[in-house]
Structures are given as C-alpha cells and as structure tokens.
Amino acid sequence: MAAEPAGAPTPLRTGLRRDSAFSFRCHACNRCCRHKTIQVNPYELARLAHGLGLPVAEVVGRYTDEGVHLRQREDGNCVFLGASGCSVHGDRPLVCRLYPLGRIVGPDSEEFVDAAPHPDTEGVWGTNGTIADYLDQQDALPYMELADAYFGLFLKLLQAPDGAAAIQPHEMIDIDAPLGEAGEDSPTTVEARAHRHVRRLAARAGLGAEVTPLPSVSRCD
Ligand code: SF4
C-alpha cells in the first residue's frame, strides 16, 4: 500500500465563490496524482467505461475499490496515472477537474476551498482568472450537476432504508441498469442516461421522481 499517507490538505483559502480569483495550469508533472482518494459516482464510472470501451462492471472490478474510489497502485500512484500523465484525461472524475479546489454544497449554498497543489508541482497556481473560468476550462459543470443529484439521492436513501434495500448493488452503480422500467425513451448521452438513472433509483426506492440536491463535498483527500 502507499508509503506516504495522504491527509486532507489544509485549505489555504475558504469561502470562495465562482467569481473569486483563481487559476491553475497543469503541466503534467504527475506529482498531484499520488496518494489521493478519488471518489467516483455512477456517472463518473459510466464516463470512464465509455472512454475505455469497457462495461461498467469491468471498470469497477479493475480500477476501483468497491466502485467508490479509484484504486491506487503499490507506490501510491493513481491506477490511471501513466508516464505522460492521466491516461483517462477526457473522462477524469470531478475531484480531479476541481483540484486543487474542493467544492462544498449546502441546501442553498456553494463554497469552494483552495487547498493549494502539491508543493513541488510544476503547475502554475495563481489568481489570473476566476473559479468560474476554471470550471469552464475543466468542463466540470456536468460533473457538478450530477454529483449534486447523486449525493441528494444517496442521502435520501440513507433516510429510507426500506427503499434502499430494494436496490441491488449493480443497479446502484450502473447507469444503464434496467431497474424494471420499459417503454421509456433511451437517451444517448452519458449525462442524460445518468439523470435517468437517478430518477429510476428514486422511483425504485419509493422516493418519487424528483430528487432535490442535498449537501455534498467534492474534494481530493
Ligand atoms: S484519474 Fe487521472 S487526473 Fe485523476 S488522480 Fe488519476 S491520473 Fe490523476
């Protein structure tokens, strides 16, 4: 297992908003993709599966710990870190897109924290832009929308154990699990399929079709 334990970095700046000054330009030095806990939700698993051309179940088994986090190699490197950087860059999870920012969402609030990148990073970290600019550059918005939807659903399932018990593990992690519904439109984008998955899981658990996003945290630890 990893020799250098990774603690959660202490944020240098908290209470940031989308219009707060921030910039970070990655130079693929590979130092930031080590000893990090990279959480993944069903949308992120589906993006990885799509990019790798593999079934979700195979991605879960080969590259994750129980479908919850990306696996680390013995040296602490992320399982997807290659000699030239991230081998799944186009489909990397949200916390990788946000890094070195973290995002904390409440019922009516959104806050960003800036934890600073690895101290020896070759990336350029500064204030030459805004967080909104950075989110656009990282194509983070669809990831944030679905992270909020899945967090909202999962928290409601914790409060409805009988409903949660009606959902099988593979149905929880595979956005295309049929969940017993037929005759529904078949969306083609991964994003639309993930939103359908959230609706189907909520219906299966007896929560109704609408799931209101609830507090969530997206951050590398
Ligand atoms: S998925 Fe890619 S960007 Fe994220 S930690 Fe792994 S190698 Fe780094």
Main features:
alpha+beta; two-stranded antiparallel ribbon; 8 helices; 18% strand; binds iron/sulfur cluster
Descriptive report:
This protein has 221 residues and is an alpha+beta fold. The chain has two domains: 13-142, no CATH class; 146-218, no CATH class. Helices cover 33% and strands 18% of the residues. It has eight helices and ten strands. The chain has helices spanning 42-52, 56-63, 94-98, 131-137, 141-158, 161-165, 169-173, 190-204, and strands at residues 13-16, 21-25, 64-65, 69-70, 81-82, 85-86, 101-106, 109-114, 124-130, 216-218. The strands form four sheets. The protein has a four-stranded antiparallel beta sheet with strand order 1-8-7-10. A two-stranded antiparallel ribbon has the order 2-9. A two-stranded antiparallel ribbon has the order 3-4. α1 (42-52) crosses α2 (56-63) and α5 (141-158) packs parallel to α8 (190-204). The longest helix has 18 residues, at 141-158. It is globular. Residues 1-8 have low confidence and may be disordered.
